[in-house]
Amino acid sequence: MRSRLFGPLGAALDRVYVIGAWLAGLLLIGMLGLVLYNVLSRIFAFHAGGATDVAGYVMAASSFLALAYTFRSHGHIRVSLLLQHVSASLRRTMELWCLGAMSAITGYLAFYMARLAYDNWVWGERSQGVDATPLWIPQVPVTLGAIVFAVAVLHTFLEVAFSGTRPTFEAPADMAGSDPA
Predict the structure, then answer these.
(1) pLDDT > 50? residue 116
(2) Chain centroid to CA 51: how far?
(3) 177 belongs to a structural domain
């Protein structure tokens, strides 16, 4: 996952991706606590408030915060049926095209997630749950995750385009074809 093309900036971005992954893990632990609290509230007949809603918000934030690290550490599932049957130069062109398109799509997602959170803040939108949470509060960490993911995709696109390296979402040669059994 180390970035050689961008030097200290690439190393700093890689640290941001790792921090996002750690935050996602901590949020998953928090979600476990919320789910256990909800289960115990049913067993012992007390009101859990908006624990179910908050668990959903935490799950969304955790998912988005983990995207950048997962992408940069080749953890996403990638279907490469077509790429296996083309020449190396055409494969590189196709991968660059896909990374460019993915950069545009993730940038679009990040922009509109930020716009949605901002609009909900301006208009004072609230959830329909028991706790009536202002919607911008759970949308901010999701937006941050989307922004960091867009940066990670653009980072990878620029690395592949200008350094000629393999995309970071491709497993290293020693992992390819390895059988865990």
Answers:
(1) yes
(2) 24
(3) no
Query: Which has the closest alpha carbon to 35: 20, 50, 55, 65?
Result: 55
* Structural domain for 136, as ranges: 8-163
The secondary structure of the chain as a DSSP string is ---SSSTHHHHHHHHHHHHHHHHHHHHHHHHHHHHHHHHHHHHTT---TTHHHHHHHHHHHHHHHHHHHHHHTT-S----TTGGGS-HHHHHHHHHHHHHHHHHHHHHHHHHHHHHHHHHHHHT-B-SSTT--BTHHHHHHHHHHHHHHHHHHHHHHHHHHHH-PPPTTSPPTTTTT----
Does 74 fall in a domain?
Answer: yes
Report yes or no on 179 lying in a domain: no
- Is the residue at 156 inside a domain? yes
CA 72 from centre of chain: 10
pLDDT by residue (tens digit) across 64-95? 999 999 998 888 777 777 877 888 888 888 88
Q: Which residues contact 33 (CB under 8 A, 6 or more apart)?
A: none
The domain total for the chain is: 1
